[in-house]
Amino acid sequence: MTPTNVYYAPFEPIRKPTTELDKNSDEYRQKRDRNNVAVAKSRQKKKEREQAIEARLNELEKENGQLQAKITELNEEISMMKRLMTEIQVRYQS
Predict the structure, then answer these.
(1) Which residues have a Cβ under 8 Å from the Cβ of 27 and sit 6 or more positions away?
(2) Digit-coded pLDDT (tens) for 33-61
(3) Structural domain boundaries of the chain?
(4) Residue 48, CB half-sphere, CA atoms under 13 Å: how many?
(5) What is the gyration radius of the CA atoms in the chain, in angstroms?
(6) Long-range pairs, 69-74, Cβ under 8 A, ≥24
(7) How far is Cα 61 from Cα 73, in angstroms, rounded to an integer?
(8) Which of 53, 65, 76, 83 lies at a 20 to 30 A Cα distance from 36?
(9) pTM
């Protein structure tokens, strides 16, 4: 016989029990100092990533502007060529 209403608890990570440290202890101060260094390093890396993304965004916007200008230039050239072709066809049909 198989049970129909089987409930599985969601996975819960096993955590080390936290120990309260005296805020005046050397161990506490060392942990805080290490954490402060880690936070500063993490924030610096985040700032560098954001700056790299911003630089890439600026490059892409500049390139996009150049490509848009080239599209406009080529569309004008196409229009001019079409007008010339029409003029040539009119001359030879007359």
Answers:
(1) 21
(2) 999 999 999 999 999 999 999 999 999 99
(3) 28-93
(4) 6
(5) 34
(6) none
(7) 18
(8) 53
(9) 0.59
Contacts of 28 (CB under 8 A, 6+ apart): 21, 22
What is the DSSP secondary-structure string of 18-71? P----TTSHHHHHHHHHHHHHHHHHHHHHHHHHHHHHHHHHHHHHHHHHHHHHH
Name, in order, each residue with C-beta under 8 angstroms of 22's C-beta and a sequence gap of 6 or more.
Answer: 28
* Total residues found in the chain within this entry: 94
Distance CA 63, CA 69 (A): 10
Reading the block at residue 87, the tokens are 């003029």
Which position has the token pair 């001359």? 91
The enclosing H or E element of 83 equals helix 26-93
Token duo for residue 16? 């080390």
